[in-house]
Design goal:
The complex is a heterodimer of chains A (224) and B (203). With 224 residues, chain A is of the alpha/beta class. In chain A, 35% of the residues lie in helices and 27% in strands. Chain A has a six-stranded mixed β-sheet, with helices on both faces. In chain A, strands 2-1-4-5 form a four-stranded antiparallel β-sheet, covered by helices on one side. The relative contact order of chain A is 0.18.
């Protein structure tokens, strides 16, 4: 369970998040909102990439302010642009990057990498240079790089924005099949239709917190 | 030796530890500087080509050789021949050819991450002087990642500026490229943090 207590955050003079009070316990949570509404900042708070100026974020009782490393082991993060997430030159090396940071024994690193490669049919690309993958393959590699670390929660920041329709569907299915809790920030409303809960952000506040049918329809109307 | 040129094959050379291969390269370089008679150099060249065969690397992986000959070895041979005599030129060219082929062999048979880890281990004694081997290793990895990325961005920015008639304006290309690079550097730093990298506590 992730809890946010009286969370406030500013960028310069501009308030980005104002008094967030949330408990996230559902398996699929969507986050929508206009540009600059605070949803990406909210996402970064969940795994301690950003620490709130005021208030607390707790992940299974761990405070992101004091237990950032432990929190990051629990909460994986998939960024919008996979080119900003892939660190090492080849597919296999990049998948092993996070596992080596966790100091797992080489045999376990190898086993987890192989499992991850098979999961999304990336095995033939094991030794392939990461920069030569297609956009969809890169995003699946980015997701795999997070999944190999076996986090309990995965936060996605607009993961399908750069994908074509086929890859968007494939990625949506990948999210759907995850055993982990997924918190997905997205402008792709169809991706969130079968989620359990949707938060609508506006000017740093959650202005609506409901099931997708209600939250997404209201959000769509407000954007018309 | 270059990073990021790895070609996957199943061979004893591929399986050999990165550190051993890099030390072997260092040893071979020293030996070739000490013993440079033409018979030794020709034997070394033949042995190096044998190692390519052992590593199951073929003509495709040796495609750089004609360029090396045309742009480096031949001009060097002519220059050395004219300035220092043809015997010295033959030795210099043979020695350089063997060294380049050996360095390429290490690069072609060793993953970048293994080379970087070996370098990190070698640099560990410097930690007491404030050098962070983990940071240096990551720096090398990111450099490798950024080279193809930068090439793509240069192409993208030039295309965008061509539309505006600024294709040959260096500032119009450099500034957006710099902004994009800095933004990506910030994003990559976040991604590295998110994947539990800790420079103080290296893998």
């Amino acid at each position: 369970m992730i809890q946010l207590h009286a969370v406030h955050h500013h960028f310069g003079d501009r308030p980005v998040l104002q008094g967030l009070e949330l408990t996230l316990s559902e398996r699929r949570i969507g986050v929508v909102g206009g540009n600059g509404s605070g949803k990406s900042t909210f996402a970064r708070l969940l795994n301690g990439l950003l620490v709130p100026e005021r208030g607390r974020v707790l992940v299974d009782g761990l405070d992101t302010r004091t237990d950032a490393r432990a929190v990051r082991r629990q909460v994986g993060f998939v960024f919008q642009n996979p080119d900003h997430q892939i660190v090492l030159p080849t597919v296999e090396e990049d998948l092993a990057f996070g596992l080596k940071n966790l100091k797992l024994p080489p045999a376990e690193v190898s086993e987890r990498v192989t499992t991850a490669l098979r999961r999304y049919d990336l095995e033939p690309l094991r030794h392939h240079p990461a920069h030569l993958l297609s956009g969809g393959q890169k995003q699946l590699l980015a997701l795999s790089g997070v999944l190999v670390m076996a986090p309990r929660y995965i936060v996605f920041d607009e993961p399908t924005t750069l994908l074509d329709l086929r890859n968007r569907r494939r990625f949506a299915q990948a999210i759907h099949d995850l055993p982990q809790t997924a918190i997905v920030v997205s402008h792709d409303l169809e991706l969130l239709r079968d989620f359990e809960r949707v938060l609508v952000f506006d000017e740093g506040r959650v202005v609506l917190d409901d099931v997708p049918a209600t939250a997404l329809d209201t959000y769509e109307r407000s954007m018309a | 030796m270059s990073l990021g040129l790895y070609v996957h094959r199943t061979s004893a050379l591929h399986a050999a530890p990165a550190g051993a291969k890099m030390l072997g390269l260092l040893g071979a370089t020293t030996a070739l500087l000490l013993f440079s008679s033409p018979p030794v150099l020709v034997t070394a060249l033949a042995a190096t080509l044998g190692l390519y065969a052992l590593a199951r690397l073929g003509p495709r992986e040796l495609a750089f050789v004609p360029h090396l000959c045309a742009w480096v070895l031949l001009p060097l041979f002519v220059l050395q021949g004219v300035l220092s005599g043809w015997d010295t030129a033959t030795r210099a060219v043979l020695r350089l050819a063997v060294l380049v082929l050996l360095a390429m062999l290490v690069s072609l048979t060793t993953r970048a991450s293994d080379q970087i880890e070996a370098l990190q281990r070698a640099l560990r004694p410097l930690a007491r002087f404030g050098v962070s081997p983990a940071r240096l290793g990551l720096l090398l990895s990111l450099t490798l990642r950024f080279i193809p990325l930068l090439a793509t961005w240069v192409h993208e920015v030039r295309e965008a500026q061509r539309v505006r008639g600024l294709e040959h304006h260096p500032i119009a290309v450099l500034i957006p490229l710099l902004v994009k690079t800095l933004r990506t550097a910030d994003a990559l730093a976040e991604a590295i943090d998110a994947r539990c990298f800790d420079a103080e506590d290296p893998p």
